[in-house]
Here is the input.
Amino acid sequence: MTKIQAADVAKLRKQTGAGMMDCKKALTESNGDFEMAIDILRKKGQKVAAKRADREAKEGVVLAKNNENNTKAIIVSLNCETDFVAKNTDFIDLAHSILDAAIENNISTNQQLQDMSLNGMSISDKVIEQTGVIGEKIEVSMETVEGAQVSSYIHAGSKLATIVSFNDTCEGQVLKDVAMQVAAMNPLAVNKDEVDESVVNREIEVGKEKARQEGKPEEMLEKIAIGRLNKFFKENTLLNQEFIKNNKQSVDQYLKEHNNNLTALEFKRVALGN
Here is the structure.
């Protein structure tokens, strides 16, 4: 039987994040074959993943970052089952490594993310491996936006992150303020034209019914409902919302104050538990 060296155990632990005893056991089982030991740990992860497939992974870490020229931003959400694991330094470091690699490799879809290589292993295989190491269900996903300039924001605690794209360039803090707006006010869409038609129709019907219950004349219901719909747009669309740092102006007015052509194109907001 091959004698397992402490240095080999340490090397395997560094690469996989597995516990010292698990690494030693895998190396012993593989007679010191490093690649086979990694496969053994991965198979352990597959077994754990299968057992925990019906569990909910609503804890974790949500991170966001711009690329070097601020034309693309990515959110990566690395999810687990418990807050205890989410606070683990190795788990947080893994989330940062995945995000950095996604930026470096210009990843645009979740499938590309799963297939992306990190330290010689695909992200999908890395997640399975870490499932065995940690003993919890782990999931990873991403969102991205692109534009003439982008901004990203990570809320304190790394449980919520936002990214926003813009049609033109501007001072970074101005754009970050809008990303913070998305985090704080959770808009449904950038503007009223992008609100789903089913949502608009529902709000109109709700507005009519409310006016009817208030005893308003039947011929006035449509007009009253449209008025309430406009209030809904003001509260729930990014450009029409009151700016959180100055409720005397809308987000659109805030942007135009700094660049008359500037507008938001798209945003993504990812929060744990959603």
Q: What stands out?
A: The CA atoms of residues 72 and 146 lie 4 Å apart. The chain has a mean pLDDT of 89. Residues 34-51 form the longest helix (18 residues). The chain has eleven helices and ten strands.
